[in-house]
Design goal:
The complex is a heterodimer of chains A (142) and B (138). Chain A is mainly alpha-helical and 142 residues long. Helix content of chain A is 77%, strand content 0%. Chain A has 2 domains: 54 residues; 63 residues, no CATH class. In chain A, α3 runs parallel beside α5. The N and C termini of chain A lie far apart (122 Å). The relative contact order of chain A is 0.07. Chain B has 138 residues and is α+β, with helices and mostly antiparallel strands. Chain B has one domain. In chain B, 39% of the residues lie in helices and 18% in strands. Chain B contains 3 helices and 4 strands, in the order αββααββ. A 4-stranded mixed sheet of chain B has the order 1-2-3-4. The radius of gyration of chain B is 16 Å and the shape is globular. The chains are: A mainly alpha (142), B alpha+beta (138). Chains A and B meet through α2 and α3 of A and α1, α2 and α3 of B.
């Protein structure tokens, strides 16, 4: 009987030591995960705070979404503008200058066209349209 | 909280749109060069942006829209500036770039000696928010 009781006692002490070691292990992971979650919360908070200070933070998401979903961009027109708009602008501004039409019936039209040319000096398509208008309304030959 | 999942799936859609803009630009530039309209070829790519130019919709690490001009000789800065001004003058393109997460526009020549940089947020008009900077400030 004594032997059995002693056996139980040693077993329970073994279990206790095993539990204690297990506890220390789990507490390590507990503190580790706690530190990790605090770090994540801090980074998220910092990120959100920074975003609210940036430009366009007051712009709604739908406005960005609408812009993303808009039609195709005319890249061919953009290339024409990059490579051809400057020369065309120079040519048009020289030919359609209002000083060339002083005291003529076309003076007002020339002023209008010249203003449009100045506004769209980097838009090749609009400059081409203005060139056509100048040919028709100012009787110019390019 | 659920909308974060939508944002996550949106990211793939955005990725596709960003890639398409780059692809369209490069195709148009190549075509323009091949037909003889352009004296040099342009090539767009995605790079890191300037941290000072960040806005609320900026992408992390991929917010730079870089255009490289392939020329034999180093390109003068005013030529590069002119390319940038034409791009920034295209309001539709600038707004699209900003909405897709770009915040910086770089233009370099292929020699890498000259280059210009602009903050796209200064040229995009969102929600009536227009900060048109003097173009010669860059």
């Amino acid at each position: 009987m004594n032997n059995i009781l002693l056996q139980i006692q040693t077993d329970s002490s073994n279990i206790l030591t095993y539990k204690a070691s297990n506890m220390s292990c789990s507490s390590f992971w507990f503190w580790f995960s706690l530190a990790e979650s605090i770090l994540i919360i801090f980074l998220l908070f910092r990120c959100l705070k920074r975003k609210s200070n940036l430009a366009f933070s007051d712009v709604s998401r739908t406005e960005f979404e609408n812009e993303k979903g808009a039609g195709e961009i005319d890249m061919g027109g953009l290339m024409d503008s990059i490579h051809g708009a400057r020369d065309l602008y120079k040519e048009l501004s020289r030919e359609c200058h209002p000083d060339k039409f002083v005291n003529t019936p076309q003076q007002k039209v020339a002023e209008e066209i010249f203003q449009e040319i100045s506004l769209n000096k980097r838009n090749y398509k609009k400059l081409i349209a203005l060139k056509d208008r100048a040919i028709n309304e100012l009787n110019l030959n390019f | 909280m659920w909308y974060h999942f939508i944002e996550f799936f949106d990211w793939f859609g955005e990725f596709h749109k960003r890639f398409k803009i780059i692809q369209d630009f490069n195709k148009a530039a190549e075509k323009s060069w091949e037909t003889g309209k352009a004296p040099y070829q342009l090539k767009a790519s995605i790079t890191m942006g300037e941290s000072a130019y960040k806005h609320a919709n900026s992408k992390y690490l991929t917010s730079g829209f870089t255009i490289k001009a392939f020329t034999l000789n180093p390109m003068p800065n005013n030529e590069l500036k002119e390319i940038g001004r034409v791009i920034l003058n295209n309001q539709e393109l600038v707004r699209r770039l900003v909405s897709l997460g770009w915040d910086t526009l770089y233009i370099y020549d292929s020699k890498g000696k000259n280059g210009c940089v602009w903050a796209l947020k200064d040229f995009a008009n969102f929600g009536g928010f227009l900060q048109q900077k003097n173009e010669d400030d860059e």
